[in-house]
Amino acid sequence: MEHVRGSNFRVLNRGAATAAGVVFLDEGRPALFGWPDEPVTLAGGSSHLLSMQGAGGKRMPVQLLVTWEGQEEPVPLQVPPRTD
Question: pTM for the complete prediction?
Fold first, then answer.
């Protein structure tokens, strides 16, 4: 994941294989979390925008848990600090 600008981040598939069924678990999500309700498919080398920000006492997380097809055990994805 990398910070784009403001509350926008980019979730990257740095591998060559497609990651199908990418889903973020509810655990640790900030108050405002913009990711599709349906699972997302990321082709190798592609990305998808994610918007998020803390509010109402829920801070920005340092990591989020994500799964995809073939990876049922949640994997921690580090949330980078904002650069602006």
Answer: 0.89
